[in-house]
Structures are given as structure tokens and as C-alpha cells.
Amino acid sequence: MDYRDMLAIAYAEAQSGFDEGGVPVGAALFDADGNLLGRGRNRRVQDNDPSVHGETDAFRKAGRQNNYRDKILVTTLAPCWYCSGLIRQFNIGTVVVGESANFEGHLDWLREAGVNVIEMHDEKCTALMKQFIEVSPHIWFEDIGECDQCNLESTP
Ligand SMILES: [Zn+2]
Fold first, then answer.
1. How far is 98 from 100, CA to CA, in rounded Å?
2. How far is the CA of 56 from the centre of ligand 1 (A)?
3. Is residue 144 in some structural domain?
4. Any idea where the CMP/dCMP-type deaminase domain is (predicted)?
5. CATH at residue 72
6. Is residue 148 part of a domain?
7. In what order do the strands lie in the sheet with 94-99?
8. What are the pLDDT digits (tens) for 61-113?
9. Do the domain assignments include residue 151?
10. What separation in Å is there between the alpha carbon of 55 and the centre of ligand 1?
11. Residues labelled catalytic
12. Does residue 76 sit within a domain?
């Protein structure tokens, strides 16, 4: 399985999230041989739970692992501070990023910690997130913790 195949799984999760009316960020965790350990998606809207990001969902679905340095976390969008913290906390060795055009994340902070960051600049990931931000800007700004840019009182 190459990175593009891995990203396709994360993208399928993001697409499911979009179809559910949620934030379309999907992720998956793989072992060094490319075996899928867990996959998931942002479910802030679906579960009314702001702690379920794509990365944290995939991480939790994968269950306990005794070592993360040889693991590969694939995500459709550059990780936020919360998920970047998870990556550093557990020493995940490789992070594959679908796109960082809609949200640049903190990739240098990950690289500083020795994380192997691979940017895919994927057009499908970029287009899906762009569409979501246009349709649901208030949910997007809520998700990235910039509620001053949205008006939560006037939106569902
Ligand atoms: Zn996150």
C-alpha cells in the first residue's frame, strides 16, 4: 500500500463526514507495512463532540499500540494543534497530509520533533474542504477555534 492508497481511505472517511453534514476531515493509522489499524473522521457535528477529530478518531479506533514511532498517520487536512499534540505525545513517526491549502496546520512544529511529514497536495482533499468551508463557514471556524469569525447565535 502506498501513501496514495492510504490517503484514499482517509478521503473516504472525509467524504462520509461531508455526506453526514459534518466537518470533512478523515484519517487513518497504519503500521509500517501499510496494514490499516484504525480509521475515522471528525464527528463534532454528528456526535456533538468537539474532541472527535479525524486523527483522534482513527487513533482511538486503532486501540493500544506499544510503539508509534513506526506508525503512519494519514489525514486529509494538516493537523490542528490538538492533533499535532497527539502526534508528538505518542511519537508517531510519519504523518501523511492530504492538503494544507485550506488550513496550514503546524507542520514545521512536527518536523522539529523529528516527525517525517509527507505533503500530498491532493486536489480532491483540497476541493472537498473548500466546498465545506463555503457551505458551512460557521462550523469550520468553530472547529478550528476561531469562533470570533462566525456568528454561532444566528446559525443552527
Ligand atoms: Zn485536529
1. 7
2. 7
3. no
4. 1-118
5. 3.40.140.10
6. no
7. 36-41, 26-30, 72-77, 94-99, 116-119
8. 999 999 999 999 999 999 999 999 999 999 999 999 999 999 999 999 999 99
9. no
10. 6
11. 55
12. yes
Which distant-in-sequence residues (6+ apart) come within 8 Å of 106 by Cβ? 78, 79, 80, 81, 84
The beta strand positions in 42-111, using DSSP E, are 72-77, 94-99
- Which amino acid, one-letter code, is at 33? D
Distance from residue 81's CA to the centre of ligand 1 (Å): 7
E strand intervals along 14-156: 26-30, 36-41, 72-77, 94-99, 116-119
Output the nine-digit C-alpha cell for 18: 461531508
What is the Å distance from ligand 1's center to 33 Cα? 25
- Structurally, the chain folds into a number of domains equal to 1
Asked whether the whole model's pTM tops 0.85, one would answer yes
Q: 120: helix, coil or strand? A: coil
